[in-house]
């Protein structure tokens, strides 16, 4: 089985406690539906700082700011993408970047 990182971009923050509970329930259900295939459900992340060649630093979140990540196990990219297509962030205006992780 291959490992895939799901990198979440964008999405909106819930404005009320009720919306927050609904979003958390949606994420919990989605992550739970992966069973043992979800190696690490991940977490949201803060604004990133980018270190560029020559040591220059930009603290602006980058061109496409990351909002979180998860690690998922699947037999192939198509299976990982099919699962990512059900991610709750898509309903909130965000996106999921799927990339295979390679052991070194």
Element pattern in H and E: EHEEEEHE
The global form is flat
Strand order of the largest sheet: 2-5-1-6
How far is it from the N-terminal to the C-terminal residue, by CA?
Answer: 15 Å
Q: Tally the helices: what do you get?
A: 2
By helix and strand content, what is the structural category? alpha+beta
Radius of gyration: 15 Å
Mean pLDDT: 94
CATH architecture: 2-Layer Sandwich
Based on DSSP secondary structure assignment, what is the total number of beta strands? 6
Class, according to the CATH hierarchy? Answer: Alpha Beta
Model description:
- This protein is α+β, with helices and mostly antiparallel strands and 104 residues long.
- It has a single domain (2-45, 63-101), classed as Alpha-Beta Plaits, CATH 3.30.70.
- The protein is built from two helices and six strands; from the N terminus they run βαββββαβ.
- The strands form two sheets. The chain has a four-stranded antiparallel beta sheet with strand order 2-5-1-6, with helices on one face. Strands 3-4 form a two-stranded antiparallel ribbon.
- The model has no long low-confidence stretch (mean pLDDT 94).
């Amino acid at each position: 089985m291959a490992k895939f990182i799901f990198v979440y971009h964008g999405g909106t923050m819930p404005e009320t406690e009720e919306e927050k509970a609904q979003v958390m329930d949606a994420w919990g259900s989605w992550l739970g539906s992966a069973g043992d295939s979800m190696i690490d459900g991940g977490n949201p992340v803060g604004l990133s700082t980018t270190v560029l060649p020559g040591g220059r630093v930009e603290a602006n979140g980058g061109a496409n700011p990351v909002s979180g990540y998860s690690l998922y196990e699947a037999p192939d990219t198509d299976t990982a993408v099919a699962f990512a297509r059900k991610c709750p962030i898509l309903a909130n205006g965000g996106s999921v970047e799927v990339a295979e992780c390679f052991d070194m």
